[in-house]
Amino acid sequence: MRVDLFDFELPPERIALRPVRPRDSARMLVVEGGAAPFADRRVSDLPSLLRAGDVLVFNDTRVIPAQLEGRRGEASIGATLHKRIDLRRWQAFVRNAKRLKPGDRIDFPQGVTAIAEERHADGSFTLAFGGEEPVEVLLERAGTMPLPPYIAGKRPTDAQDREDYQTMFAREDGAVAAPTAALHFTPELLAALAEAGIASETLTLHVGAGTFLPVKAEDTEAHAMHSEWGRIDAATADRLNAARAAGGRVIAVGTTSLRLLESAAGEDKVIRPFEGDTAIFITPGYRFRAIDGLMTNFHLPKSTLFMLVSALMGLERMQAAYAHAIANEYRFYSYGDSSLLIP
Fold this sequence. Notes:
Structural class: alpha/beta
Radius of gyration: 20 Å
CATH class of the largest domain: Alpha Beta
């Protein structure tokens, strides 16, 4: 499909630079299939919007401070780690990459160093970190939270972002972007959902910085997705399959959870254990296998994620929903408001 079909105008003032407090007070646009009117609700209304027996699926990845600023000689070098290769090596997008060649050493703050081992076809580098401490320890010392470019371009990252840009489910280190739909959840909301008979499950997908990359191709078939590592264990897959068999709906909280669930499901719509990389790219025409709904924030024009929600609900339906959200002053992107999509 033509990428320009997924374009829309977003006023800059609709981009949220901070989350609302409490987290579950964010607005939520409910979009159902067919011609049902849109409903303007709050995330805290979720227990009354779902049914007993439904299951919410969260991503328990934890964002690491993967943004580094360093120097190679006189040159300033910025690195955003986006995929772990092994214990000491990460693939990274590099700013000022023309000043870097394989074999060069980059000096980051606090005595952290890395060798640029290899340049990849997409312009990224493999960075091999020195020393014996785990790379995650080095990042806690020298790195900052990798806020999305549309936020980082408007204000500096600060200490508050270390809390704000992490979900209550975060426990598996490895993401360089938050699974932002889950930022809206609080322990109180989770308790209310459980009381209403709505279950919760977790999986792990380490979100990469590729999620921020623009689609430069003119047609979706020419776009190459970056792969990300994920895992669903056998017990979780069994519980999700049992819930659907009993008439419950599987509601993915965030596009990251959705993409991993769809990667793990077969043509028979059975979710199986999964561990490894996925580069699934969901566009209109895709037949969903694993999920019955999606809770997600509002996405960028011409992004792979707006393509995904258009595949779930229909392009015209999502164009109308986003026009409604803009007209009614919803807050967009990572720190913004939410939507509940039930096809």
